[in-house]
C-alpha cells in the first residue's frame, strides 16, 4: 500500500454502532420472550440465569462508551434489575444513550489501546467487539434456555 | 467531515481477520472439549448437536471468502464430517485457507452489497460479521451443552 493511500476500512464506526444496535434489538426480544417467573430463575448446568446475563450486558454497554469518550474508567458494576419490565426499561434507555453518545468517541480512538474498567487492556475496537461478542455468546445460551422451556426463540437473523 | 477527510475506520480488514481467527481458535477448543460420543449426539430442546453446528460454520467460512474474491457464489453446502478428528482436520485446513485467501478480497469490496450463496443480500462487511456472530451464537449453545454434560468449557476470553 502506498504511504498516502487511505487506511483500509472493514467497517466504519457508525456502521458498527448500527450492527450492535441490531444485535441489541434481538437481545431485547429474547429478554421479552422469557416468562417473568423464569427470567431470573431458570438455568442449565449451574450457569447464570438469562436475567443475570442481561444485567451484565447492561453494566458494560453505556459505561464502556463513556469510558471511551472520557478516558476515565470506574470499576465495572452489574446493572440492577429484578423484573423483566425494569430490565427492558433500562435496555431501552441504554439504546437511546448508545445512539446519542457513540458519535462523541473520536474515530481514531478505536485504534488506541485502552484499559477498560481499570482491568481489560486491548485496542478500543477489540473492546467494543468483546461487548458485542459477549452479548451474542450469552444470548446463544438464552436460546438454549428458551428451547429447554419449550419456547421458540426469535429468529437469529432478525435485527430490525 | 470534510470531503477530503479519510473514511473513518472502526476496524481494518486485517484486524477483522485476526479477530475472527481468535474466535475460531476458541471454537476449535470447544469442539475438542466434547467427548467423541457426544459431539454428534448430545443436544437440548431438540436443537442441533454441536458437531452439526460446527459443520455449518465450516460450510460457510471458506466459501464466503472465495465468493467475496470471485463474485461467484455456489449454493451453500454443509461440511461433511462425522468424527471429531475429521472435523478438527477440516477446521485447521480452513484456518490456513482463511489466512491465505483473505488478503485477496479487495478492501473496498467490504462496503459493497453482495448476494451470498445466491440468497443473502447485505454489505460484505455485514456478511462476514454474520459468519462470526453465527459462530459465537452457536458456540454459546455449545457452552451450555458442555455444562449440561458436566464439562468445564474453555474461558470465553481465551483467543490465543
List keywords for this structure.
56% helix, Four Helix Bundle (Hemerythrin (Met), subunit A), 5% strand, globular, 2 strands, two-stranded antiparallel ribbon, homodimer
In a nutshell, what does this entry contain?
Chain A contains five helices and two strands. Chain A is mainly α.
How many helices of chain A in DSSP terms?
5
What is the element string of chain A, with H for helices and E for strands?
Answer: HHHHEEH
Q: What count of structural domains of chain A?
A: 1
Biggest sheet of chain A, in brief? 2 strands, antiparallel
Descriptive overview:
Two copies of one chain form a homodimer. With 160 residues, chain A is mainly alpha-helical. Chain A has one domain: dinb family like domain (Four Helix Bundle (Hemerythrin (Met), subunit A), Up-down Bundle), CATH 1.20.120.450. Helices cover 56% and strands 5% of the residues of chain A. Chain A contains five helices and two strands; from the N terminus they run ααααββα. The first copy, chain A, has a two-stranded antiparallel sheet. Chain A starts with 12 loop residues before the first helix and ends in a 12-residue tail after the last helix. The relative contact order of chain A is 0.19. The model of chain A has no long low-confidence stretch (mean pLDDT 95). The A-B interface holds A 6-16, 19, 23, 44-47, 107, 110-111, 123, 125-126, 128-130, 132-134, 136-141, 143-148, 150, 156-157 and B 6-16, 19, 23, 44-47, 107, 110-111, 123, 125-126, 128-130, 132-134, 136-141, 143-148, 150, 156-157.
Amino acid at each position: 500500500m502506498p504511504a498516502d493511500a487511505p487506511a483500509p476500512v472493514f467497517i466504519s464506526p457508525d456502521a458498527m454502532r448500527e450492527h450492535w444496535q441490531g444485535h441489541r434489538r434481538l437481545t431485547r426480544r429474547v429478554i421479552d420472550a422469557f416468562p417473568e417467573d423464569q427470567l431470573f430463575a431458570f438455568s442449565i448446568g449451574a450457569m447464570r440465569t438469562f436475567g443475570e446475563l442481561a444485567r451484565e450486558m447492561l453494566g458494560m454497554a453505556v459505561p464502556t462508551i463513556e469510558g471511551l469518550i472520557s478516558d476515565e474508567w470506574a470499576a465495572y458494576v452489574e446493572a440492577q434489575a429484578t423484573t423483566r419490565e425494569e430490565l427492558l426499561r433500562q435496555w431501552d434507555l441504554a439504546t437511546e444513550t448508545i445512539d446519542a453518545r457513540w458519535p462523541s468517541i473520536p474515530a481514531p480512538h478505536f485504534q488506541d489501546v485502552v484499559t477498560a474498567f481499570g482491568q481489560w487492556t486491548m485496542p478500543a475496537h477489540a473492546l467494543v467487539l468483546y461487548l458485542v461478542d459477549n452479548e451474542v455468546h450469552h444470548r446463544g445460551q438464552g436460546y438454549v434456555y428458551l428451547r429447554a422451556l419449550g419456547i421458540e426463540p426469535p429468529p437469529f437473523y432478525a435485527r430490525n
